[in-house]
């Protein structure tokens, strides 16, 4: 996690996954420890079982939804920035046209 925090993309979606929750007696990390670790690293936390499929679909659905949400936010920001540039460009063109018209009619 230290290397990811130092060298990774600050906007990366980080997920901590506790696997094999079906082996409750063999647990090395408690759920509360996993949750706290994830919170301390601004990460999502899921407990899953690949063996019986517990929480697998929920984990991937949540990830896909979060990725989709982030893509839409970036698209919206890009469109907003592009719209601002287009508006400024259109405004310059209009001013230029008005100037040309006024100087040619003089």
Describe the protein.
- The chain is mainly α and 106 residues long.
- The chain has one domain (2-98): Rossmann fold (3-Layer(aba) Sandwich), CATH 3.40.50.300.
- 61% of the residues lie in helices and 8% in strands.
- It has three helices and two strands, in the order H-E-H-E-H.
- Strands 1-2 form a two-stranded parallel sheet.
- The radius of gyration is 26 Å and the shape is elongated.
- The model has no long low-confidence stretch (mean pLDDT 81).
Write out key terms for the chains shown:
106 residues, mainly alpha, Rossmann fold, two-stranded parallel sheet, 3 helices, elongated
Named at the architecture level, the CATH assignment is 3-Layer(aba) Sandwich
Q: Give helix % range.
A: 55-70%
What are the secondary-structure elements, in order, as H or E?
HEHEH
> From the helix content, strand content and strand pairing, which structural class follows?
mainly alpha
Read across the widest sheet, the strand sequence of neighbours is 1-2
The H-level CATH homologous superfamily, spelled out, is P-loop containing nucleotide triphosphate hydrolases
Radius of gyration: 26 Å
N- to C-terminal distance: 70 Å
- How many beta strands in the DSSP annotation? 2
Content of β-strand: 5-15%
Count the DSSP helices. 3
Q: What spatial form do the alpha-carbon principal axes imply?
A: elongated
